[in-house]
């Protein structure tokens, strides 16, 4: 009879709702406090290591825009270059910033060879970041 009485009792349980409520309130408090605190990194005294050949930090320049005018002639920064002169100008840009990017524009009717020549000039200059702008087909005028 005693064993029947012990088995009939419900097992005690822990109500987790108040604990979860407190944890969420703390989380919200710390998220708000972190956003309100002014993190000023300049107040930290850190000695940066020195290197003999260090270059000053500058922002990355925008991509150069190359416009293929006609076979063998490309416009860059308002000047028209042939392919050899273009390679030299691009090498100068790579010397200033090694990760220099290029945006190659041209008419849709240009031959594939014209584009290949400009891409070869970019490769010879050491440029690896080359982009080709396009439009969605519904915006394009009908082909002749």
Account of the protein in words:
With 144 residues, this protein is of the alpha/beta class. It has a domain at 64-131: 2-Layer Sandwich (Nucleotidyltransferase, domain 5). Helix content is 38%, strand content 17%. The chain contains four helices and five strands, in the order H-H-E-E-E-H-E-H-E. A five-stranded mixed beta sheet has the order 3-2-1-4-5. A hairpin with a 2-residue loop joins strand 2 and strand 3. Helix 3 crosses helix 4 (112-125). The protein is elongated. The chain starts with a helix and ends in a 13-residue tail after the last strand. 8% of the residues are buried.
Question: What is the subunit organization of this protein?
Answer: single chain
- What is the radius of gyration? 32 Å
Biggest sheet details: 5 strands, mixed
Strand order in the largest sheet: 3-2-1-4-5
Note poorly predicted spans: none
Write the SSE topology.
Elements: H1 2-8, H2 17-36, E1 64-70, E2 73-76, E3 79-82, H3 83-96, E4 101-106, H4 112-125, E5 129-131
Parallel strand pairs: 1-4, 4-5
Antiparallel strand pairs: 1-2, 2-3
Features:
144 residues; alpha/beta; Nucleotidyltransferase, domain 5; five-stranded mixed sheet; 4 helices; 38% helix; elongated
């Amino acid at each position: 009879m005693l064993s029947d009485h012990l088995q009939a009792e419900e097992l005690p349980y822990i109500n987790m709702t108040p604990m979860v409520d407190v944890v969420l309130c703390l989380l919200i408090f710390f998220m708000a406090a972190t956003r309100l605190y002014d993190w000023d990194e300049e107040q930290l005294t850190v000695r940066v290591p020195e290197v003999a050949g260090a270059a000053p930090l500058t922002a990355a320049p925008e991509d150069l825009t190359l416009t293929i005018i006609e076979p063998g002639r490309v416009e860059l920064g308002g000047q028209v270059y042939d392919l050899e002169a273009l390679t030299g100008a691009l090498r100068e840009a790579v010397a200033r910033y090694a990760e220099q990017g290029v945006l190659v524009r041209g008419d849709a009717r240009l031959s594939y060879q014209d584009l290949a020549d400009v891409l070869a000039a970019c490769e010879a200059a050491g440029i690896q970041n080359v982009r080709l702008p396009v439009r969605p087909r519904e915006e394009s005028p009908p082909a002749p």
